[in-house]
């Protein structure tokens, strides 16, 4: 047995091949030769001021030498980390150039821009916090889903029931908001002030246009337009109106002729066209008519709706509808009890 074991050991040793040592292999690369190997120069070790120890120096040099050996060994993890570190872009030290640039930009920013920003922030409307802002930028998987409760009846139920139904209106409510830009209400302070036939001025306070006198224009206390263009336009309209009406139909002229000749030329009829017609004189003008007060649109509708004949017709029509429904669904227990 011993002889066989010795033979196996000799065979194993024969399988190994002797490899000569690599010439110029240096596990530790000096600082002056790092540039030739394509390595960056090593930074000098930082030693804190006031704290120097003789015992810690050889330990740090040993650890540094061991780290360099690991980085040069391609089978070691330190070498892989060094390659990855070399491939990554070098970032500038924090709080150096960026902070200086931002501070310089903030100093150089003019006061006008700051004032403009403050004014815009003051004008910006303050919106109330709602569901659209609460779920802003989020996908809600359960939003808009309505759970339906299945019927517990034995057979009076549909065969297929969808437990969850998605409502699009509810999902849109979580993402949309209706904003109205109506503005503030400004009360109307101007009046129409157009001259009326009775000599007074129109007191209507429409915003842009009067329904009787057209577009509202600035006028003085006598009703005369302040702008020359408006005055010229009104004069032109007055002349055109007089041109359409013949002179002999002037009511004042006709009254004078009637007074001189004693013949009725119809001046009273012309006045009635423009003015109000005379109504029937009341027997007791100082008393209020109670029947006239009761004659309103509501009372007139009540007389028609609550008329006995109308009520009978409605009842007969409803009875006919009930009879048809009974004849159609009388064999179903769900409608028999209703």
Task: Give a verbal description of the structure.
Mean pLDDT is 75; it is low at 48-58. This protein is mainly alpha-helical and 338 residues long. Helix 2 packs across helix 3 (77-87) and helix 9 (251-261) packs antiparallel against helix 10 (267-274). It has 14 helices and 4 strands. The N and C termini lie far apart (108 Å). The chain has helices at 2-15, 56-72, 77-87, 97-108, 111-123, 131-134, 168-173, 228-244, 251-261, 267-274, 290-294, 297-305, 308-329, 333-336, and strands at residues 145-147, 164-166, 209-210, 214-215. It is elongated, with a radius of gyration of 53 Å. The strands form 2 sheets. Strands 1-2 form a two-stranded antiparallel ribbon. A two-stranded antiparallel sheet has the order 3-4. 45% of the residues lie in helices and 3% in strands. Among the domains are: 189-244, no CATH class; 247-276, no CATH class; 304-338. Residues 1-71, 87-121, 260-302 are annotated as: Disordered. It comes from Patagioenas fasciata monilis. InterPro entries: UVSSA, UVSSA_C. Residues 19-39, 110-121 have a biased composition (Basic and acidic residues). Residues 289-298 have a biased composition (Polar residues).
